[in-house]
Design goal:
Helix content is 26%, strand content 33%. It contains five helices and nine strands; from the N terminus they run H-E-E-E-E-H-E-E-H-H-H-E-E-E. Helix 4 packs across helix 5. The longest helix has 14 residues. The protein is globular. The mean pLDDT is 95. One of its GO terms (biological process) is pyridoxine biosynthetic process.
Amino acid sequence: MKLEDIRREYTKGGLRRDMLDESPFTQFDVWLKQVVDAGFPDPTAMVVATVDEHGQPSQRIVLLKHMDEQGFVFFTNTGSRKAQEIQQNSKVCLHFPWHGIERQVIVYGEAKALPTSAVAKYFLSRPKESQLAAWASQQSRPVSSRKMLMETFHAMKSKFANGDIPLPDFWGGYCVVPHKIEFWQGGEHRLHDRFMYVKQDDGNWQVERLNP
């Protein structure tokens, strides 16, 4: 197998300026609904890129849990690598790789911690098993075996057998407030259509076409 021979054309349609909404949030919502309606798996999956104190980037996939004109929301263990890196450098990048419809969205912004009330509301909405898993996992830290992880999970299950599972003090969430958002549509011959929304000082968004 030669990796350089793996290629295909992008033919699902172009993107023009007059097809875009003036608001990047409205445009994102339109595209997200189209991904959901098309039935592609994990439509809210997004890559979160952070940078550590040595300048080393890292990435991971999380799920988008809310989006409005304030920004893009996700939740995580505050002891995780991503949370620790955000604490040191709040500038992050999000990437939505919607390959099935030959589209991508890239968000550049700053991650701001959510209030405890918002975190608790989301945590209590999760399935019970997911709540227990949050308690059982010391995210990003070494664990000796899968068996040890499952033993901790079952211990948490016994501990919280009765009543609601409380919010862990190490569980939090972030709203990524964007200052730039790129919409990418695949094009024939690698002549892709790319448009960047850039937030202006007055709060409005300017849209510019980028070379592919």
